[in-house]
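User: G-protein coupled receptors family 1 profile domain-containing protein, Pocillopora meandrina:
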Amino acid sequence: MSIVAVVLLSVLDVFAALTNTAILCLVLPRTCMRTVSNLFLVGLSLTQFLMTVLVIPFSIVTLSQQSWQFGEGFCQFQGFFTIFLSISSATFISVIAVDRYFSLANPMSHTARVTSTHVLFTSIFNWFRAAFWAAFPLFGIDGLKYKFVPSINGCRFRLDLKGSYSIYYYFIAMESFLLTSFTLCIMYFKSFQTARNSARQVRPGNIQIQVLQNGEFTSVAQTKNSFQSLKANVTLALIIGSFLLTRGPLAIFNIVTSFTSEGYFSAGTETTVYFMVFLGPLLDSLVYVLLNRKLRKEVFLILRKCVKKRSVEEEPKDIVDYLRTLTDNYVSTRNSSTEIS
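Assistant: Predicted structure for G-protein coupled receptors family 1 profile domain-containing protein:
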C-alpha cells in the first residue's frame, strides 16, 4: 500500500474517532438530549469509536506492511473485536431504523412505552449477543480460529473452511450485512409510507386557504408537499446508501475470496474495499447527526460560538451586570475629572 493511502486512511480514522466522540459529548452530559433515539445513536457511536481505536489502526499498519506485527495473542484479540463491533454496529443501525418507524407509526405509545431503561437493556443484550457469536473462533475448534490471513491482510478466521464450519462465516455475513440491509429497506420504506400518509391528513399546519371565483374563502388539505417528499427520499438514500456503500464491498470481497484462491483481487481493489470499510464509522456518524434536527442544531450552535468573536462592548445580560457597568463607568469618569482638576 502506498504512503498516500496509509496517510489518507489514518486521517480518516482520526476524524471518525473525533466525530463519534463529539456525539457522545453532545448527548450524554445533557438531559434534554438524552432521548430514546439519541441514546440508540450513542450506542452506535460508542461501538464505532471502539472500532476506530481497537481495530482500524492495526488494520492500517497490517495493510501497509502486508504482515501482522503484533503477536498471535493480540491477533486473536483484534479478530474478536472486528467481528464483535461489526455485528454490534449493524444491529444498532437496524434498531435505530425500527425505532424510527414505530415513533412515526404510533408516537404516543412509543413515548410512553420505550424509555431509557429499555434502550440500556437493548444495548447490553446487543453487545452480549455480538460477543457470543464472535467468541467461537477463540476456542480454535478444528481450524476455526482467529489468525492472520494473508488473502485479506487481517486477523480473521479462514474463509475457505469446508463443511459445517463454513456456515459460521455466512451466518456472520448475514448478521453484519444481509439482515441489516433487509431491515433498513423494509423499515425506512414503511416509515416513508407512514410519514406520507400522515402528511395527507387534515391538521392545523396542513391547511391551505383558497379563494373561490365568487369571492368566498374555503380551506383544503394539502395532499402533496414536494419538499417533504424530496427530504424523505434524500433521508432514505443517505441512510441505506451509506450502509450499502461501506459494508457491501467487504461482504462481496469476502464471499468471492471464499470461493477463489488467495490473491484473486488486485492490491488496488483490496485498498479500495478497506477504504470503504474505514469510511463507515465516519459516514455513519455524519449521516445520523445531519438527519437529527436536535443534534444538528447543537452542532451548528457550537460552531457558531467558535467562529463568532465575542464583542468587547457586549451589552450586559442581567440587571446586576448592568448596574456594575454603570458604577464602573461613573467611577472611571470621576477619577478622570479629579486628575484633570
